[in-house]
Fold this protein.
Amino acid sequence: MKHTLLNVEEFKTRRLKLLANIPVGSIAFFPAAKEITRSNDTEYAFCQNKNFYYLTGFNEPDALLILIKSNDDQLQSILFSRAKDPLQEIWHGRRIGQEKAKKHYGFDQCYTLEESDEILLERLTDIKELHYCFGDAPNFGECQTFDQQVSQWLASVKAKVRQGITAPHTLVDCSAVINEMRLIKSDAELDIMRQVNDISCAAHQRAMEKTLAGKFEYQIEAEILHEFARNGARFPAYASIVAGGDNANILHYTNNDDVLNDGELLLIDAGGELAGYAADITRTFPVNGKFTPSQRALYQLVLDVQNAVIEQIIPNINFAQLNAFTCEFLTKGLIELGILSGDLTALIEEKSCKKYFIHGLGHWLGLDVHDAGDYQVNKDKQQLRSFEPGMVMTIEPGLYIPLDDDSVDEKWRGIGIRIEDNILVTDQGHENLTKNAPKSIKAIESLMANAKLKLS
Ligand code: GLY
Ligand code: MN
Ligand code: MN
């Protein structure tokens, strides 16, 4: 399957935008990720550093981007990457090399990593400010952090000051600059996010069709991964959560090794990754295809609040307002179901719904599943950042009642529900990128009934 991916102009524009945000006489460093050993001589699937990827589209480990805004306001982008090496390439795969990097990725200059010490020494001379994302790359070079590597380069420049040069005097964390850029998605990024969401919705639909009592959680996980991969999203954006029954009450359950029981719900939180961009979708449905009355009542409450929240998404609203609305809505609903009791105003004030709605309402989404971007949290932990067109976020209310919670009627115990959609803020309102994953009770039950008919 052919996907629309980002072109070189998109990455060049991003680099220029970053350069526009740093003063003359500055250099910004962005290191690539390293491969990480899984065991002995095998590695985990490579995942590029997302800031580096955002600015380069370059998907090899062991590389470094430097962006220069010289004292006379000249702009330059330089990539250091692995040298071509026929023997290494026969064993481990092709390397892009410097020539192709320059031609296809739009850098002004490309060098090998081995050349970096000497060239950086020269480039850092008479530069005033050195920018990088503090702590962003835990490993760089043989056995040191990127912070240590930066200190080493600085020490080398400073060792030359007696020759009449000046060394950078200021280190600046440029995380905020790049985080803000990443928070507002371009049209090209949104094209990819729509594609990865469509693929991920198809995977959730497949999971519903394939679920039967007696199967194991990992078998349904395999269906999800199959649908991601066969559509081009070869890897999941994060470890899939496939949680039957009470396992859904473990928020980051990833063991996925339990049997699925008749009469229980199955919560699946899974999203594919395409061209670096993540989807993050949760659906909860009955293992046997039919909600019990108590599952139905709790599910409908979560679904109603989720739909009502999504309806309110327009520019200028914020997570704090949506959170307050969610808590009020859930508190009322939980009183009606007899799960909470007491005075509505007092229960809202005490945030008593948080006993069952134990995580946040949502988060930014993009290259990372919990994407970059400031939430502008105040002292009361309210997220006051106003939504703007081009932001993408999840809306994911949930209710979790563990099996051992004897403060509620037995019929509610062992039910964990989350419904999570990915929402784009548009000029006029919003677009639900995950509307193709069934979520109404009617849609889920009829999809599962039809799938069973086909099987029989
Ligand atoms: N899948 C992680 C989350 O929903 O935040
Ligand atoms: Mn999720
Ligand atoms: Mn999420």
Remarks:
- Residues 238, 269, 280, 369, 396, 420 surround glycine (ligand 1) (CB under 6 Å).
- DSSP finds 13 helices and 19 strands in the chain.
- The chain has two domains: 8-182, 184-455.
